Amino acid sequence: MPFVPSPLGEREGRDSARRVEVAVLGAGLAGLSAANCLCGQDVEVLEAASHIGGRTKSARFGNSAWANFGAQYLTDDKVKVVELANEVGATLVPAPFGEFGITDHLDDDVRKEVQLQIERVEAEQARPRPATAWELDDQSFASWLGPCSDAAASFWDHWAGGMLCCSITEVSLYGVLWWWGNQRTSPWSDQPVESSGRGATVLAGGTNELTIGLAQRSGARISLRTQVVAVIPTGGEYVIRARCEGEAVTLRARHVICALPAPVAASVCKELPGWKQQALGSVRYGGFLATPMLVAPADRPVGPWRFSVSRPNQVYNANDFRLRTPGDAEQSGVCYHSYVYDRYARQIWDDPDDSITSGAVRALLAEFPEYTNRVEWVGIQRWKYGLPHYSLGHMKRLDALRAPVGTLRFCGDYCSPSNMEGAARNGERAAAEVKAEMEVHS
Ligand SMILES: Cc1cc2nc3c(=O)[nH]c(=O)nc-3n(C[C@H](O)[C@H](O)[C@H](O)COP(=O)(O)OP(=O)(O)OC[C@H]3O[C@@H](n4cnc5c(N)ncnc54)[C@H](O)[C@@H]3O)c2cc1C
Fold it and tell me: How many Å apart are CA 30 and CA 260, to the nearest integer?
């Protein structure tokens, strides 16, 4: 049956006393992975946006091109996401950007300096210790690096910006050990890295294909444009207050899975104990600003882009236009998945959309002058909660972040690791907790 998202009440009528067994808050990958695990149960998913999938948002253009606004690709170690993609029949294709030497563009002196720092990082990865050890969790990567040239610091800052959406002054040494190299499922290099055997892949048709598949497979009711404003514990169940297109709606649920970004969870979940409020409130996110750009095939030019003013000397693309849809740009056209991470996103966040998209097109044409007259469409998406990062002390708070409060469960990529794999694994973990609780009471 085709999946038809419906606002709360559309199917059932607006019944303020309506009850469900499980309410899932947020239809991102975490919430939908949880709903998928609870397939066959009485589940309703409440989602503020008008699309499902949260940060996996994408849009299709015909058969061969699509725009990813958020999540881009899977590395070989994202075994859970690959398993889910297979389960729902979403097609994974080899990522079209191939291998590249991360230090290739550096001058010789800087490359030597960075190489020595890489050896130090890898030596740390060969010494497993508790994640909460002071030198790992409470020390920033910048401080661990110690004195180094601006060029080397800039190399690391750009890497941390792209991978973790933060600066080297904000991320702990532990966060870097987790993300450096190919062992992104663990900070330690002495364990075999789980592998899907697929290499780096992208979802054909856009990353949203995975979350749409999960939504369909879960059989859950999905209520879009439904913003949760309060979750209140009342007599062994939860009252969920939401707003759907200006109207107040209420749902009652015995179990709640909160799959919202941590700051939103902290603000809507009422009567949380202090330790939980504190943990949720401590999660730090970097913002992303995405401007996917569709380029027409060479034989179908669309004319010049209508430029607006953009900032001079501003970075409007931070991934060297490496991320793109597969295929031959000249023959069939291509979509570049351009974005800037927190450092640059902050600088242009409040600029008008047409200024930002024009800046992005200028950057594209500087790299590919042959695309003059071929830029067909440019999207824009500001992700305030772009990526949660490993701020200082994060690992000490992880148990509290994952812990339930009564029958209110918490999941999302802030429960680590901060990527699709983390979102999916944590969604499934929350669903398993709910199932266990249901069995106890059955
Ligand atoms: C630009 C970008 C690039 C990325 N690239 C990659 C990548 O290449 N590989 C990778 O693995 N990961 C990548 N990620 C990270 C990945 O997208 C996330 O880790 C993952 O999608 C998070 O899923 P989630 O369910 O935890 O959160 P979300 O997807 O944010 O889901 C939370 C949902 O809650 C909804 N919501 C918020 N407030 C309310 C409310 N009050 N009421 C109801 N609903 C609400 C939101 O609309 C959202 O749908 C990227 C992220 C971004 C932004």
Answer: 9
Q: Which domains does the chain have, with CATH numbers?
A: 19-57+207-283+390-441 (3.50.50.60), 108-179 (no CATH), 287-386 (no CATH)
Across-strand partners of 257? 24, 409
Between the CA of 385 and the centroid of ligand 1 the distance, in Å, is: 8
What span, in angstroms and rounded, lies between the C-alpha atoms of 344 and 289?
Answer: 9
**60: CB partners within 8 A, 6+ apart:** 66, 205, 206
Distance CA 60, CA 64 (A): 8
Residue to substitute in 55, 289, 419 for testing ligand 1 pocket (most ligand atoms within 8 angstroms of CB): 55
> How confident is the model at residue 9, as a pLDDT?
37
**What is the reported pLDDT for 101?**
74
CA of 261 relative to ligand 1 center, distance in Å: 8
Distance CA 63, CA 87 (A): 22
Using an 8 Å Cβ cutoff, are 228 and 246 in contact?
A: no
> How far apart are alpha carbons 324 and 338 in whole angstroms?
8
Nearby residues of 306 by Cβ (< 8 Å), 6 or more positions away: none
Q: Are 24 and 220 spatial neighbours (Cβ–Cβ below 8 Å)? A: yes
Contacts of 59 (CB under 8 A, 6+ apart): 66, 67, 69, 206, 208, 379
Residue 432: the pLDDT is 98
- Nearest residue by C-alpha to atom 1 in ligand 1: 70
Cα 304 to Cα 376: distance, rounded to the nearest angstrom: 9
Burial 273-305 (b: 16+ CB within 10 A, else e): eeebbebbebbbbbbbbbbbbbbbbbeeeeeeb
Retrieve residue 155's tokens. 């190399």
Tell me how far the alpha carbon of residue 370 lies from the centroid of ligand 1, in angstroms: 34
Note the pLDDT of residue 273: 98
How far apart CA 74 and CA 51 sit, in angstroms, is: 22
Low-confidence ranges of the chain (pLDDT < 50): 1-15
Entry field: residues in the chain? 442
Ligand 1 atom nearest to CA at 69: 1
Q: How far is CA 391 from CA 173, 177, 308, 384, in A?
A: 9, 13, 37, 17
Q: What is the pTM of this model?
A: 0.95
